Amino acid sequence: MLSPRKNMALVIVPALIGFAVPPLVAQEPPSRFERRVEATRPPVSVFHSTQAINLPTAETLSQGEWQFEIAHRFLPAVSEGSDALWGLDGPANMRLGLGYAPLDQLLVTLARSNFMDNWDLRAKLKVLEHGDGPFPLMAAIQGGVSWSSDVPERDSGDPGNFQYYGQLIVNTLVAERLAVGVVPSYLYNVLLDRIDPVQDLFWGFYGQLYLTDVVSVNAEWALGGNGAELDHDAGSFGIELETGGHFFKVFLTNSVRLNPTQFLVGTDFAFEPDEWRLGFAITRLLRF
Fold this sequence. Notes:
single chain; mainly beta
C-alpha cells in the first residue's frame, strides 16, 4: 500500500507534465497551393541601356550605382574613303558623362561636350513600370539645363547661353525582341544666337532589335520643330554590344552634336550616305 506522500506524487507529476508539454493534436498539412511567401513581380525590362543612341530610354540604374560615358562623333564623312580612313582620320566632337542613382528610379547625370564647351545637367525619374500583358510599358520624365560657355561673340556667363528642356519618355515591346520608344521634348532657348529666347517642341523616335542576349541593332530619329536651328533632322543607326556592365554602340549618323539641347535642333547634313559620319558611345556601370 502506497503512502499518502506517494499517492500525492502520482497526482501532481502527471499534472505538471500536462502543462509543460503541449498536446499532440493532428494538424492538417498546408495546401500545396497555399501561398507561403508574397509573390514578387520580375522587373520590367524593355531597353537595357539608359540611352538609345542620342535619345534617352526610360531605364535607370539601381540605387548607389554610377555610370561613366564617353562618346565621339567623327567630323569627316565616311564617304571620304581611305583619304580620311573612312571618317576616323580627323577631328571629333566628344562627350564625357558621369551619372549617379541616388534612388532606384532616379538617375542624375552631368556631361560635357567639347562643341561650344556645352555642360549638361539632367535628372531622369522613372514614373511607370507595367509588365502585365503582351506589351510591357515603361515611362520616365527627364529635365535638364544646358550651359554653352563658348558661344561666339558672347561672354560665357551670359543668360542667353543657358537652355532648359523637359522630356517624356515612353518605351514598350512590340514583339519579344523588338523595343520601341517615343520621346516628345520641350526646349527653351532653341537658338543661342537670338536675343529673344525661342521655345519649341521636338519629337524623338527609336527602336532596338535584340538579335541575341549580347548583340542588337538600333536606330533613332529626332524630328525637329518649327524653331529648329538647322535644316535637317538627326538620324542614326548602328549596332550595340552588351557585355557585363558595358554598352558599346557603333553607328552611322548625319549629326555630329551630342548633348540633348544640341542634337535636338537638327544638323547641317542631310541623311544621305555621302553625309554619314561614324560615331560611337561606351558606357560603363560602376559599383562601389
